[in-house]
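fold-stage: in
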Amino acid sequence: MQTSIQSIGRQWLTVVAVLMAIAVNALSNFFPPAGQNIGQISNTTFANVLITPEGYAFAIWGLIYIGLITFSVYQALPAQRDKTAITCAAQWLIGACFLQMVWVYAFLLSRFWLSVILMFGIVGCLVMGYLSTRTLKPTRAHRWLVQAPISVYFGWITVAAVVNVSSALLISLPVNWSTLSTGSVGLTVVMMVISAAIAAAIAFKYDDGSYPAVAVWALSAIANRQVSIVPIAFVGIALSIGLRLIILRLKTKQIMGTPTAS
């Protein structure tokens, strides 16, 4: 009986955590504590962070939140109460949502290195949650209602972590590094390549097309924003095409019924 009550409590706490994270994000945009919301800070204080995607890319949060709501509702169903993988993923998602709420105000209050620490905490929670979802039997329901929502969230938070670190470095490094210098362009290209490599590795390891799809979205948006900087634009487009081919390969193998996960 006690275990059942705890399970129900965890299920509802997951729903509440997701809704609170969405509410805090919305409120922070309308009522930023220091006068500027996250988008405004990115476009002013961090205008020279070359790896920041074009503004439209952040519309992916709508998809992320729809996915997280879907997952939270699905995991709250009685039939999912005792499934270890879903329970574990939900617990880590609660942690990620809590840290994200704290991150929002750390960033808005210009506590940028604190925001980096919090961001790595979010990444850590999502790594554990993601790994939990990959142990599920890949039914259609699990793939779309559990794995895909966590994968898309994890994918975008990975991108956000790279941007967050770059932003904090911009504040700390000498002024001449924050200009369109060879150094900043080179560092941006290296970070883009690393991000794409991580996406490709996860795609092949876990037969997952959702995570690299987020990377494609982000890399394309970075290339679009920095279209006048040839190395960044070229690398962004090239990496996007490469990841699209990987996704196509995975989808083809899934249709043919050939497993690709190790």
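fold-stage: in (second)
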Amino acid sequence: MLEGIEVLTHSSIKIEKEKTIYFDPFQISQNFKDADYIFITHEHYDHFSPEDIMKIINNDTKIIMPESMKKNDDLYNFENNEIIFVEPNKEYVIDDLKFETVPSYNIGKPFHPKNNNWVGYIVTIDNYRYYIAGDTDITEENLNISCDVAFLPIGGKYTMDYTEASKLANTIKPKIAIPTHYGNIVGKSKDGMSFAKLLDESIEYKIYIMWYLHFKWYKI
């Protein structure tokens, strides 16, 4: 399930199978120009970064983003590419790629209002369901998700913290839970391990984001 998967930094995720798929590309290290599909969850700079998209886009890349971003001024950068606008609570098929959209929003915080119609995605690849949550709290919608792998934000302030994210994971019970959205803009680098320790024993975890311990970098 995890072959070809990377969390590059923050919430930037790359899935490289038959096709190469990016989610919220951010702080991309070089010009790869290898994306078949780019999924954007919402328009904040650390999730929709035109500068980073330009490093991975090519003439055939398709970009998927919320309908609410349709008037974003930065879209002129990608006028030669196909852009697919999506709404929450829908199912889509693009080429052979099947995915669903899940509302992604805050409860009791002002940063990601529900009425912005921003989204997370459940993408089906090789019969496995990958849930990329975007910036969200625990919501009525994501409590009912069925997935094999869950990428969950844990940094707090703008999203769930690691305690809340573990509660969501223990409720929906993916086979594997992967923490994101910490150790960079928000959240401590050690939060990934704190999240892992709270998971039900039936849930495996994978930590991609580096964390600091005893003056050395470790990657789990």
